[in-house]
Design goal:
8 strands, 3-stranded mixed sheet, single chain, about 40% helix, alpha/beta, 9 helices
């Protein structure tokens, strides 16, 4: 999000709005009222309709008549409030990036005003900003995971973190008391697709092999030795 956001008041004349867009190198700006509430968005296409009708009020032929009909309403506007598109499509600062991207794509908007819970302008997010956020680098995700683990564990080095295409792998032994909360916090990080946990090789407990039953000949030999020790002379007591 870009802060502060460029905006224009509703009573700004058409020419001044055009100059603002050219000076700031923007394709559209939010239109705000006296309380800084977003009431609409005025874009280059809105201004172009006004300028086109001013330059050539009448065009001949069926295409010209259709063109005039579509631009008729825009041609009579003289201020930002009368030229703008409304109601505006806005997003909240706490809204997920994916939701903001859907809103921009559905409305075919290059820029979205960001408003607080009262509808006041706090910033503007562009399609480029959203695209960068959606293709977040794995290194950035890992840095955020490392920071999170550092706040939860006394020794963060006990865990090894790897991130590949948004999939976070946590290797090591986690304390059962903090594991559920910690892993849930990692899953809530933006752009984390999945969280996997594995134990390091040095910490894996080897499996014990089950004891095999002794062969019958071994049992017989053991019984014979026991008998010889009990009866050295070879006699049996009756």
């Amino acid at each position: 999000m870009r802060v502060p956001a460029v905006s224009v008041p509703g009573d700004m004349p058409f020419v001044e709005v055009a100059r603002t867009l050219a000076r700031e190198q923007l394709s559209a700006v939010p239109v705000v009222d006296a309380g800084d509430h977003v009431i609409g968005v005025v874009s280059e296409s809105d201004l172009l309709a006004k300028a086109a009708v001013m330059t050539e009020p009448h065009r001949h032929g069926p295409v010209g008549r259709l063109w005039q009909h579509r631009l008729y309403d825009k041609s009579h506007g003289d201020t930002a409030a009368t030229l703008m598109t409304f109601p505006p499509v806005t997003v909240h600062p706490a809204e997920r990036v994916s939701d903001a991207a859907w809103a921009a794509a559905h409305a075919r908007l290059r820029r979205l005003p960001v408003t607080d819970h009262r509808g006041r302008l706090v910033g503007v997010v562009s399609r480029r900003d959203l695209l960068r956020a959606l293709i977040r680098d794995d290194a950035e995700i890992r840095a955020e995971v490392d920071s999170l683990i550092g706040r939860h564990l006394a020794d963060p080095r006990a865990l090894r973190i790897t991130v590949a295409n948004g999939v976070v792998t946590v290797t090591g032994t986690l304390d059962k008391a903090v594991a559920p909360e910690l892993l849930a916090a990692v899953r809530d990080i933006h752009d984390v697709i999945q969280v996997r946990t594995t134990r390091s090789r040095t910490e894996r407990v080897p499996r014990r092999r089950p004891r095999r039953a002794a062969p019958l000949r071994v049992l017989r030999r053991a019984a014979l030795l026991a008998h010889r020790e009990a009866y050295p002379s070879g006699r049996r007591h009756m």
